[in-house]
Amino acid sequence: MSRWREFDSHDGTNEPTFDPTSAINTDDVDATQVFYGSVFGWQFQDYGPRGFVQILDGTGAAPMGAIQQRRQLLDDAPTLGFECTFGVDDVDTVSERILAA
C-alpha cells in the first residue's frame, strides 16, 4: 500500500503520525526536479494538478514527497519552504487543541 495517502488510525489517541512526506514549493518545478534528481537520485512522476509531481525514492517505487508550483495562500506572502504532513484520527479534536494552545 502506498504511504502517500495512508493515515492509519493507530490507537485513537489523536497523537499525530508523521507521514514521511513533505512538499517542496518552487517557482520552477522542472529545474527543481533536475536539481534534486541529480543530488539525491530521486525520481518523479506527475501527480494531481499541473505543477505538482510526486518525489519517488531512488528505486522509483515509493512516494516520499512532492514538488509543487509555489502558491500564495496568504494575501501578502508566497508559500516558502517545506510543507509537512501529519495524520490524525480526528481533525476536529486536534483543531480544538491547536486553538486552545
Write a structural description:
With 101 residues, the chain is an alpha+beta fold. It has one domain (19-100): 2,3-Dihydroxybiphenyl 1,2-Dioxygenase, domain 1 (Roll). Helices cover 22% and strands 32% of the residues. The protein has two helices and five strands. It has a five-stranded mixed sheet, covered by helices on one side. Strand 3 (52-56) and strand 4 (63-69) form a beta hairpin. The protein is globular, with a radius of gyration of 16 Å. 9% of the residues are buried.
What is the number of strand segments? 5
Quote the average pLDDT.
Answer: 78
What is the CATH superfamily classification?
Answer: 2,3-Dihydroxybiphenyl 1,2-Dioxygenase, domain 1
N-to-C span: 35 Å
State the helix count: 2
Sum up the structure in keywords:
101 residues; globular; alpha+beta; five-stranded mixed β-sheet; 5 strands; 2,3-Dihydroxybiphenyl 1,2-Dioxygenase, domain 1; 2 helices
Give a quick precis of the structure.
The protein is α+β, with helices and mostly antiparallel strands.
Write the layout of secondary structure elements.
Blueprint: E1 17-26, H1 29-40, E2 43-46, E3 52-56, E4 63-69, E5 82-87, H2 91-100
Parallel strand pairs: 1-4
Antiparallel strand pairs: 1-5, 2-3, 3-4
